[in-house]
# Entry
Amino acid sequence: MHTTVAIVGGGPAGLLLARLLHNAGIDSVVLERRDRAYVEQRQRAGILEQATVDALRAAGAGARLDREGLVHDGIELRFRRRTHRVDFPALTGGRRVWVYAQTEVVKDLIALQLSDGGPLLFDAEVLTVEGAATPRPVVRYAHEGREQTLTCDYVVGCDGFHGIVRGVVPESVRTTHERTYPYSWLGILAEAPPVYDELIYAHSERGFALASMRSPTVSRLYLQVPNGTDPADWPDERIWDELDARLATDTEPGWRLERGAVTAKSVLPMRSSVTEPMRHGRVFLAGDAAHIVPPTGAKGLNLAAADVTVLARAFAHLDRTGSAELLDAYSDTCLRRVWRAEHFSYFMTTMLHTDPAQDGFDTGLQLSQLDRIATSPHAAAELAENYTGLPLGVPAAGPSS
Ligand code: APR
Ligand code: PHB
# Structure
């Protein structure tokens, strides 16, 4: 088999790239290690920036999102047992975000690709990528019980944090920058109405909590827990009690969350990581394969969508004009946005969580930063601009000369 672009991984990055290439008249093959049901059920975050919504619409995958997505004009910050609202449109000149689960994005993209697109193979595990520096890279993969070969003009590694394509960039030119955090998230899905009509990010003496949602009847809730936590140590009632305690305010004493059946429960580690450069020869990295962020800033899916939008435009430019100029700029273009999101995710994470080694000085700094956001429109706008995301095509500014 031969194709123009071999895409390794059928998560949001790989699937969206395949759609954008298809619409530009460029053929691709997506190879996904897992089966369709697994990919469609994996629970991930659910906040989409305007640029991500635009990319999904451009890919033809905006119809259900426009019907079922929940538009959010702000978030609530809870700290000092009080609430402060950050109003996105007022602070950013009209920008907002959408609540629409990544699992739903993935389902929409898979349905489109299977009905009208190039090959999307499940249970197809890529074993090796050879010839990155040659005009005809070769991808070997296991499918239907045997090893198969795909030749191509380009390979894009959309194979996530544990993928193999990153390893194709030789160690001599590859650098990975990383941070781990001394806490994780315990996340649940519950058949309970959202706590409030916007997301609540809570700083408390007992640790961080986040009240999010999937629909008007389903809540997605998170608690900071120690690394290595076994979800079995958190029976449902303990989770609800802890959410009540961390989300409590003095303005509504005795307030309790509405409880419901817990339908999923898992522990998520937190990590920041960036691999540079995001390209070697004819092999490109996109999404979690190149970078990950802790979920506090809700940037993971948005960064993946931004990478593949930039990459699809670069392939289309090459196809139309013969110029590789945009492909050559891919890594630098993406890394500007990646580092901005890395900074913001780190900022949100360290401002809101309690480090086990935290002392009064650290807590004083966190509360001072939160007070600043609550009292200065400049500080609030900085958060709002980052949360709602930069439009694509606007580079994070650097020196002008
Ligand atoms: N061969 C084929 N497929 C592979 C291989 C391989 N060797 N290794 C990994 N994969 C597949 C995984 O099974 C997975 O479906 O690559 C896909 C990678 O998808 P994601 O991990 O979802 O990564 P990405 O598409 O970059 O999406 C980023 O996911 O982790 C979240 O918060 C993150 O929302 C962000 C989004
Ligand atoms: C989610 O709904 O899963 C979610 C929302 C916001 C975040 C992280 C996760 O910052």
User: Anything to note?
Assistant: The mean pLDDT is 96.
